Please model this.
Amino acid sequence: MRRQGPGPGQGQGQGQGSGQGPTPGEGPAGGPGAAVREPLRTEFEFELPRGFVDESGTVHRNGSMRLATARDELVPLRDVRVRENPAYLSVVLLGRVITRLGTMAMVHDGTVENMFASDLAFLQDFYRRINAEGHTRAAVSCPHCEGAFEVELAGSRLGES
Model:
């Protein structure tokens, strides 16, 4: 679902009474520890460990992936290649949700099929993290100074940043 901007008369930067919450310099709405709600993030940047090499020899490493929909997960199940080899499911699925890869005009399952195994494993894990686990941050406040900040609840595996 796409989030719409402010309605008529509720433009950003109109200050008090705009329904937008406090502006920088104003106190927090609702007192200490009140969390500011961020819009839903649906696209996530990544960098491949090795990079995809296209026909001309150009290496593409930076890209973005969007959150998957139910349709994204259901449509590949009808694909003949997936029926013959269930391991092909992730190739077809990733081809649907990768929105950008370097300067390539289009990314599809054929692109994913020709990636290095380490890049495929990276993308499978990235897909799982953004779709299955969701956001694992929580807004908290310090019990001593009442300063508001976010903490990562899930942590990361050894060696990840």
Remarks:
- The helical segments are 70-74, 80-84, 89-97, 109-113, 117-133.
